[in-house]
Amino acid sequence: MQQYVIPFAWKAVGAIVLWIVGGILISGAGRVVRSAMTARGIDPTFSHYVNSALSVLLKIILLVAILGLFGVESTSFAAVLAAAGVAIGMAWSGLWPTSPPASSSSSCARSRSATPSAAPA
C-alpha cells in the first residue's frame, strides 16, 4: 500500500506546484499581452478577447501537462484540440466576407445601366 501512496502523493504535490506556478506565469503573460495591446492603441474589446483566448489556451495546455505528469496520454487531447481548432476556424471563416454581398453589387449594376448615357453632340 505504501509503495503506491508515496509516489502518488509526490505526483499530486508536483501537480499542485505546477498548477500554481503555471497560473502565475499565465497571468503574467496575460498582463504582458494586455499592456502591449493597450500601448499600441488596440480596441479594448478585442484586447480583452485575445487575452481571454490566450488564457484559456494556456490553461488547457497546463492541464494536459499536469495530466501527462500522472501518466495520462496526451495524444487524444491533442486530437480533440485540433478538431476544436478546425471547427472554430471554419466558424470564423464566414464572419468576414471577402466580397460585397450579391444584392449590393447587383443594385449598383442596375443603377448604372438605368441611367441614360449622354449622347455626344
Summarize this structure briefly.
By secondary structure, this protein is mainly alpha-helical. It has helices spanning 2-39, 44-69, 75-93, 102-114.
Task: Please describe the structure with a list of short key phrases separated by commas or semicolons.
121 residues, MscS_archaea/bacteria_type, MscS_channel_TM-2, mainly alpha, 4 helices, MSC_TM_helix, 79% helix, Helix Hairpins, transmembrane
Folded structure, characterized:
Residues 97-121 are annotated as: Disordered. The chain crosses the membrane at residues 12-29, 49-70, 77-96. InterPro entries: MSC_TM_helix, MscS_archaea/bacteria_type, MscS_channel_TM-2. GO terms for molecular function: mechanosensitive monoatomic ion channel activity. Residues 101-121 have a biased composition (Low complexity). It is a single chain. The longest helix is centred in the N-terminal third of the chain and has 38 residues, at 2-39. This protein starts with a helix and ends in a 7-residue tail after the last helix. Residues 105-111 have low confidence and may be disordered. The protein has helices at 2-39, 44-69, 75-93, 102-114. The protein has a single domain (2-88), classed as Helix Hairpins (Orthogonal Bundle). The chain contains 4 helices and no strands. The protein is an all-alpha fold. Helix 1 (2-39) runs antiparallel to helix 2.
Distance between the termini: 106 Å
| Rg over CA atoms | 27 Å
CATH topology: Helix Hairpins
CATH class: Mainly Alpha
InterPro entries: MSC_TM_helix (IPR008910), MscS_archaea/bacteria_type (IPR045275), MscS_channel_TM-2 (IPR011014)
Biased composition (Low complexity): 101-121
GO cellular component, one term: membrane
Region (Disordered): 97-121
